[in-house]
Automatic annotation (TrEMBL):
This is FANCE protein. Signal peptide: none annotated. One of its GO terms (cellular component) is Fanconi anaemia nuclear complex. It comes from Thryothorus ludovicianus (Carolina wren). InterPro entries: FANCE (IPR039685), Fanconi_anaemia_gr_E_prot_C (IPR021025). The gene is Fance. Transmembrane segments: none annotated.
Amino acid sequence: PPELSILNSCSPSQLEGLCSFLQLSTCPEPFLVRFCSWLLALSPDLSYTSAAILAQQLFLRRVLSLSQPPSRHLMAALTSFCSKYSHPFCRVLVAAVLQEPGEGAEQIKLVCELVEECLEPHSVQLVLSQVLEVPLSEKLLPVLQAVLGRQEVLPPELLDLLVLTLCQQAPAFATSLSFAKLVTAVLTVYQSQVS
């Protein structure tokens, strides 16, 4: 709808107010899918800040409250939004999931699925750097495994940080099969760069 062009002319506070007025954080999921398809057609593209605000308003509450796998509609909306605005999405949503003290299983599974199937290579690197910024736990290992499964070329400094983190954390994960698989994956995927 032509009215959506207003999203490009709102200040951040106006956009937050508009989202609140439209109750986007609680709108029915079928409408969420339609709204995200409209966002993809928007020209010009949303600014980074506007996309980050929309990611927060549309998805943050829904994803953090997941106690079972996301619905087909929610997954379609997430995939659609990620296809165009994956960087702001990761900055807002993936960061929140990683910093949640409980690190819910459904949220971690969702991040893994998005890493494996939706995110652009630069966003996969962003997810990796976000994981390496928080204390490593058994629950976060699948996210690292999903990142390595993409077999993306990593910048040397990010690969160095990954290897250093794994070396430092090894004693804490001495009995973890997941950690052993992760180290094996790093040595397999990046064997020419790891000595």
